[in-house]
Write a structure and sequence with these properties.
The complex is a heterodimer. Chain A is α/β, with parallel strands linked by helices. Chain A contains 7 helices and 10 strands. The longest helix of chain A is centred in the last third of the chain and has 16 residues. The mean pLDDT of chain A is about 90. By secondary structure, chain B is α+β, with helices and mostly antiparallel strands.
């Protein structure tokens, strides 16, 4: 479903953030990408979100080169991806409900769908009682759960989670991992980057290890091995 | 864009305007100052216009006729002058009126009045008072009168005794220069003020939107289209413009009440409060239109920068 074909990314100084990365990810797969800071994990995800363009090679989604998409098609493509970030990236002046509703509005969903789906998805992440809270009124774990709810509300094909537990305590980390596993069990591909050995080991899926912009290990049932 | 999207954009812009109260307050403050400068320019322009018109009104040409000049010849010359495109008005002052005016001007000067009575007849000729549309046109009118003077004669004596333009030429030229320079200078000042104010407002709104650049990137990541992202910001900019315009218009009310009598005393022809009331609809649309345009365009350009990334 996703295929990175010899993807390289060179920045101005000539330094390679990605160096001829070839990777394929099947539907419904849960993969964890691990590596030291600067290994190229975030650049890899940015390529998948078409936030960065490759210097060489191509990224394909269902056989379509995502960097060749028109603006309109790119918007439609991004609506099929849910993203979760370490720093949550919630809209600060919108409530939990409005943050999730915004993602639905952007996808062209109707008001009726929004009114029925948003409370439901907030219940799923156990925040039904905090839907009118602003991000500043929520704890780190709660914010991340709102971000996950926003990521899954449009029933995406892929959920990308970039260090989602980086700012969380162990209890919240555990809860977030459980939610991501549940999302994957329901048939959504999850691409996770992390530094956290406990997270990788508890997921127990495919583990890709990166170093200096290259994939140095790809284990089907891997463990954190850095 | 669908009606649903438009409704969502307006709602989102309004909510954001209300919730980002500190940023909204700062933007409105700066935009109010800009619109205040713009409105002040309107008032200064009106005052300057009135003052220059007053000066223009003081400039004229008087054509003095010999006492023997027949009235019908003078009136024929008046008609010829009135047919000139440069001439704004021509006033005929008969010999009798000239005498009457002379007497009233010298009513406290018994010696002069006594001397006048001793003459036994009216020594004053009729005259024409000519006002041109522009001060620079007096020279052309004077030239016309020069030619007419050669043609209009009684017993080979020209009926025109004197045209005072040639005595006042230097003063008229100087006044024309002052009026032209004042207009050019005020235009330059207005342009500088408008440009500076627009730049300041644009930068304030750009700064306000800069604080939302992360939000814009999140909106892009959830697949929102550029117009859907841009819409609320542009609407917010329009709201800044509307609120600032209303504040500015309210501020001008007490200010013109206070300044009205002052300007009336100083410039005699214009009371700023009367001008504000008379021209309110025009000022309202200029201020409101400028505010809305400035807010919308500034927001549009500021967001565009982050949408390109």
């Amino acid at each position: 479903m996703i295929y990175f074909d010899q993807v390289s990314k060179l920045y101005n100084g000539g330094q390679a953030a990605l160096d001829k990365v070839t990777l394929s990810i099947a539907p419904k797969e849960f993969i964890s990408i691990v590596g030291h800071s600067g290994a190229g994990k975030t650049t890899l995800l940015k390529m998948l979100l078409a936030e960065e363009t490759p210097s060489q090679g191509g990224v394909f989604f269902e056989s379509t080169d995502i960097h060749g998409l028109t603006k309109l098609d790119l918007n439609n493509f991004r609506r099929r991806i849910g993203t979760v970030f370490q720093d949550f990236r919630l809209l600060p002046n919108k409530t939990a409900y409005e943050n999730i509703a915004f993602a639905m509005e952007a996808s062209g969903r109707t008001d009726e769908e929004i009114h029925s789906d948003v409370p439901h998805v907030l219940e799923l992440v156990d925040l039904g009682d905090k839907m009118w809270h602003f991000p500043r009124e929520l704890s780190g774990g709660e914010r991340q759960r709102v971000a996950i709810a926003r990521a899954i509300v449009n029933q995406p094909d892929i959920v990308i989670a970039d260090e989602p537990t980086g700012n969380l305590d162990p209890i919240n980390t555990y809860e977030i991992v459980q939610i991501l596993k549940k999302i994957n069990d329901l048939g959504t591909m999850v691409v996770l980057t992390t530094h956290n050995k406990g997270v990788v080991d508890s997921v127990g899926g495919r583990v890709i290890t990166m170093d200096n912009g290259r994939i140095i290990r790809d284990d089907k049932k891997g463990k954190y091995a850095l | 864009m669908t009606w649903v999207n438009l409704k969502r954009i307006i709602k989102s812009g309004f909510v954001s305007f209300w919730r980002n109260n500190v940023v909204s307050f700062a933007s409105i403050l700066v935009m109010t100052m800009t619109l205040f400068v713009l409105g002040s320019i309107l008032f200064v322009g009106a005052t300057l216009d009135a003052s220059l018109n007053q000066i223009r009104d003081k400039v004229d040409i008087n054509v003095y006729f010999v006492t023997e000049a027949p009235e019908e010849d003078i009136l024929a010359l008046k008609r010829s002058l009135e047919s000139l495109s440069e001439v704004a008005s021509v006033e005929y002052v008969s010999r009798e009126q000239a005498l009457e005016r002379f007497r009233s001007r010298h009513e406290n000067d018994q010696l002069t009045l006594q001397a006048l009575d001793e003459l036994g007849e009216n020594p004053l000729g009729a005259n024409l008072n000519i006002k041109a549309k522009e001060t620079s046109q007096y020279e052309g009118i004077a030239e016309f009168l020069g030619n007419e003077s050669a043609l209009s004669t009684v017993d080979d004596i020209p009926i025109i005794d004197k045209v005072n333009y040639f005595q006042n030429k230097n003063a008229i030229d100087k006044l024309s220069e002052i009026i032209d320079s004042s207009e050019t200078f005020s235009l330059i000042i207005i342009a500088i003020l408008v440009i500076a104010s627009v730049i300041i407002t644009f930068n304030t709104i750009r700064l306000a939107i800069y604080t939302s650049k992360d939000e814009i990137s999140v909106m892009k990541l959830v697949g929102a289209s550029n117009s859907y992202i841009r819409g609320p910001f542009v609407f917010e900019g329009i709201m800044y413009g509307i609120v600032s315009a209303l504040i500015t218009l309210i501020l001008f009310y007490p200010l013109t009440i206070w300044l009205g009598p002052l300007t009336e005393n100083f410039f005699s022809d214009i009371n700023l409060f009367d001008y504000y009331v008379d021209k309110f609809s025009k000022i309202f649309f200029i201020i409101l239109g400028s505010g809305v345009l400035l807010g919308a365009v500034s927001s549009y350009l500021a967001v565009r920068k982050y949408l390109k990334k």
